[in-house]
Amino acid sequence: xxxxxxxxxxxxxxxxxxxxxxxxxxxxxxxxxxxxxxxxxxxxxxxxxxxxxxxxxxxxxxxxxxxxxxxxxxxxxxxxxxxxxxxxxxxxxxxxxxxxxxxxxxxxxx
Length: 110
Description:
The chain is an alpha+beta fold. The protein has helices spanning 21-35, 49-55, 93-109, and strands spanning 8-14, 39-45, 62-65, 68-69. The longest helix is centred in the last third of the chain and has 17 residues, at 93-109.
């Protein structure tokens, strides 16, 4: 079972009603398709305040790769059901791919 630790987990946390969620999900799926290796992909619909607290939710949409936020945002003090604002625009497919690759490479080096 050494192989299992190599698997990359990509998670999109979102809720319905945020304009960027659908677009982000499309981009993440596209990035995963282009990468051609085994990635565990999950979408998590955050639809209750309890769940948002449990996840330390950064807002919708949030992408986590092996539980690391795509923009390396620290976990919020106060989890809340809010739409997330990306100051530099949504991460591009390229950006998402690069982020996933960094995580893959950091695993290989250990």
